[in-house]
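pasting for ref
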Amino acid sequence: MQDYLNQTFWGNTVQSYIIAAGIFIIGLIIVKILQKIVLRRLKKWAEKTETTLDDLLIKSIEKSIIPLLFYGVFYSSLTSLTLHDRASRIVEVASLFVVTFFIIRFISSTIMFMISYFIKKQERGEEKARQLRGMTVLINIFVWVIGIVFLMDNLGFDISAVIAGLGIGGIAIALAAQTILGDLFSYFVIFFDRPFEVGDFITVQDKVGTVEYTGIKTTRVRALTGEQLVFSNTDLTNSRIHNFKKMQERRVVFKLGVVYQTTAAQLEEIPKIVRQIIEAHSDVRFDRGHFASYGDFSLNFEFVYFVSGSEYVKYMDTQQSINLQIYKEFENKGIEFAYPTQTLFVNKEEKNS
């Protein structure tokens, strides 16, 4: 038996092959135990927790770390044998490719999971996650480029020339695509600084509409008249944007004019009437009301109140209700609204004969 075990094939004894096979089988069993028992329990534990961060990390481990452990078992069993120099070099290079691939994959997926986790916790998280697709492509490209450069360095290549080439190429690309890169950086500004979000009602110069989509280069706004407005991201970050969604309340200023024939008692009563009407509405805060000025054809009052919220329809409904009630109350009180008129007074002189 010992003689058989000591027989040599391709530079290794039968005993060495049996040991390598044992390492491989035992290693597979250990990894399977980790996969079936430990990882499964971790999944069940993660399902009970409120946060999804642990779920994302477990998925990342399952997709990258577990395959890497399987390859580690294969590599350990293989390196326990005496290999030819060329075969050993092939195994080392293959191992370097495999390890680099799974490490880059793990880093990339972890970064994506982390970003997605924090984005989905915010308001309109699902919409923002969809908008994030353009940025995730760029992050993945960056991570893979760094990984490939690292791989080339470990394979013995002179990466200084590669880095210099990437630098020169990057400068050339930046000069050729200044506008695109400007819009890209503006996209990052919009995404992280959040001057507006999808669904917000904004005004940009003389353009008004609701934000429908924010991409890497352009942002699309649905105008009130129905058409879609397409802005470059740079134009938006360089403009003054009025975001009505961020508005906590609307300030309303309106004026009333009554005729000069209105009595002093009625003039004193008008601010009280209007104030009572405004304060009777919910989500409305009265600010002030005054007999403001003498006009050419009217006695002018000025009133200010605030409507809570940013909804334009709610604001218009409130304003309409207040205007109608003021009109009815003035009609009941016999108070007349003024309108542009001129009264001509003629003096008749009698001629003495």
